[in-house]
């Protein structure tokens, strides 16, 4: 395999920057662009050692640098690796990379270092996926959950399930294939217990997916409500900024404003939509209304805002109906004055949970946050539990769960051991695709396609 190199740090001016080189010629290539002040050669340096010196191309010194040496297999990729850290100027980094490439390295593709780590057995596919999730983590729970996945929490859970299925399948196959031998028959109770327990573990993983996704990726959220009910004020109250202009003239919020807000343990990408009004003649406002509806359709969570100080209107009723198929929280705002809104009528129109607040006075927000966490299922999220972090993993677990369910049904219907084993084999296959042991080249390429260069 070729020796690859890339800038591993952000492509922006910073204190330090690192060029990473990996492959069988990493040490000699590094030696040709780096001279230690001690005179030591990188090729003669043991792993986990650093050398201080100059990085250069030919006679031209580019920068002062530190070269960190890792020897195969004890490195991230499992290959010989050298990391050259120099000053983090963009030009300097590109210049050092060019020198390294001119010395014989190939430019690394996005995710190629991690792909090599996977191919060299340093991590399985689900752990590799956790690398990018960890890099993108925007909060403490996301960090803890993805680090846990990188440490193999999901892999271990999946391996236990797969091993249990494999032992069962092997036992049944032996019993079918060698009927004359003294292999005791696996009782239906033992078989169904194993299958039911594996199914329960897989189902629990699937159940945690949406909450995990909300915590890892954030949640598209629409704040809807007719003009002047206090949507912008709520957005500001949650985000603590004055980005949306709050006025008492109906229809001021003409476009869709987005704000990313940490609400409890989850990041909401909040869009304050223009009041969804159908009776506007204002062309610009019409565009806002269309965008608001699009944003509404896309949203995973809707905060439906009502004005407690005015009676329910037909527009409100229409919106409440629209929200009935959505993850929605009805936010009754302006509860700081006389309440003219008929809360019982709202409850008869919608089964969504209801939060009474005063956005202007920042009252009731904690309760609203708690309700949001409950609706998204993120309340009580345990970052130390195994977590499915990608759609690919979810699809594998879903298929394996279906296979195990089919196997269970087959046992219950008294279908032959052969047929049960076919279902169990499919489940094992799907779990092996998840961890990467049986993943096709296309699946592997797809996983690493979205990685950044240098990781
Ligand atoms: P939007 O059109 O739904 O975005 O509404 P705004 O956020 O622009 O608010 C409209 C008006 O309602 C403004 O004058 C706000 O000050 C007022 N308002 C918003 N929230 C509250 C609240 O909790 N209590 C009271 N009394 N007024 C509020």
Observed structural traits:
single chain, 455 residues, alpha/beta, seven-stranded mixed sheet, six-stranded mixed sheet, 46% helix, flat, binds guanosine-5'-diphosphate
Task: Report on the architecture of this protein.
The strands form two sheets. The protein has a seven-stranded mixed sheet with strand order 3-4-5-6-2-1-7, covered by helices on one side. A six-stranded mixed sheet has the order 9-10-8-11-12-13, with helices on both faces. α14 runs antiparallel to α15. About 1% of the residues have low confidence. A hairpin with a 2-residue loop joins β4 and β5. It has 455 residues and is of the alpha/beta class. It is 46% helix and 18% strand. The radius of gyration is 29 Å and the shape is flat. The structure holds guanosine-5'-diphosphate (GDP). The site of guanosine-5'-diphosphate has 21 residues, from α9.
Which spans have pLDDT < 50 for at least 5 consecutive residues?
244-249
Q: Please, what is the average pLDDT?
A: 89
The ordered H/E elements are: EEHEEEEHEHHHHHHEHEEHEHEHEHHHH
Largest sheet descriptor: 7 strands, mixed
User: How many alpha or pi helices?
Assistant: 16
Strand content: 15-25%
- Helical content band: 40-55%
Strand order within the widest beta sheet: 3-4-5-6-2-1-7
C-alpha-based Rg, rounded: 29 Å
Class by SSE composition:
alpha/beta
Give the termini distance in whole angstroms. Answer: 17 Å
Bound molecules: guanosine-5'-diphosphate
Number of extended strands: 13
Shape: flat
């Amino acid at each position: 395999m070729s020796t690859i190199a890339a800038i591993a740090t952000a492509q922006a001016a910073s204190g330090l920057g690192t060029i990473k080189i990996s492959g069988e010629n990493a040490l000699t290539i590094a030696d040709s662009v780096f001279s230690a002040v001690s005179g030591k050669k990188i090729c003669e340096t043991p792993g986990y050692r650093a050398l201080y010196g100059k990085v250069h191309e030919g006679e031209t010194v580019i920068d002062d640098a530190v070269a960190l040496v890792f020897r195969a297999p004890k490195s991230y990729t499992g290959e010989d690796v050298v990391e050259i850290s120099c000053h983090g100027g963009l030009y300097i980094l590109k210049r050092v990379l060019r020198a390294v490439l001119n010395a014989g390295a190939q430019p690394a593709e996005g995710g190629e270092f991690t792909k090599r780590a996977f191919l060299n057995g340093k991590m399985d596919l689900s752990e590799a996926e956790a690398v990018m999730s960890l890099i993108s983590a925007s909060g403490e729970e996301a960090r803890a959950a993805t680090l846990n996945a990188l440490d193999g929490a999901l892999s271990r859970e999946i391996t236990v399930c797969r091993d249990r299925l494999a032992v069962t399948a092997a036992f049944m196959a032996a019993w079918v294939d060698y009927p004359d031998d003294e292999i005791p028959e696996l009782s239906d109770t033992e078989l169904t217990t194993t299958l039911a327990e594996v199914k329960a573990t897989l189902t629990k993983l699937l159940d945690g997916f949406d909450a995990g996704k909300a915590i890892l990726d954030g949640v598209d959220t629409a704040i809807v409500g007719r003009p002047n009910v206090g949507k912008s004020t709520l957005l500001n109250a949650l985000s603590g900024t004055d980005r949306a202009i709050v006025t008492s003239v109906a229809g001021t919020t003409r476009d869709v404003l987005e704000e990313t807000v940490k609400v409890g343990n989850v990041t909401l990408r909040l869009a304050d939509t223009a009041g969804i009004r159908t009776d506007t003649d204002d062309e610009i406002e019409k565009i806002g209304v269309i965008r608001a509806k699009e944003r509404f359709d896309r949203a995973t969570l809707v905060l439906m805002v009502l004005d407690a100080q005015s009676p329910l209107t037909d527009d409100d009723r229409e919106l409440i109906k629209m929200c009935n198929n959505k993850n929605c929280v009805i936010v009754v705002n302006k509860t700081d004055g006389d309440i003219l809104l008929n809360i019982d009528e709202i409850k008869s129109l919608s089964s969504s949970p209801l939060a009474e607040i005063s956005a202007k006075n920042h009252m009731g927000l904690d309760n609203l946050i708690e309700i949001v966490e409950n609706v998204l299922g993120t309340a009580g999220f345990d970052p130390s539990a195994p977590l499915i972090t990608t759609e690919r993993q979810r699809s594998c677990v879903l298929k394996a769960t279906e296979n195990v369910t089919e196997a269970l049904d087959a046992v219950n219907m008294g279908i032959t051991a052969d047929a049960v084993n076919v279902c169990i084999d499919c489940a094992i296959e799907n779990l092996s695709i998840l961890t990467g042991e049986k993943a096709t080249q296309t699946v592997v390429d797809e996983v690493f396609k979205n990685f950044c260069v240098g990781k």
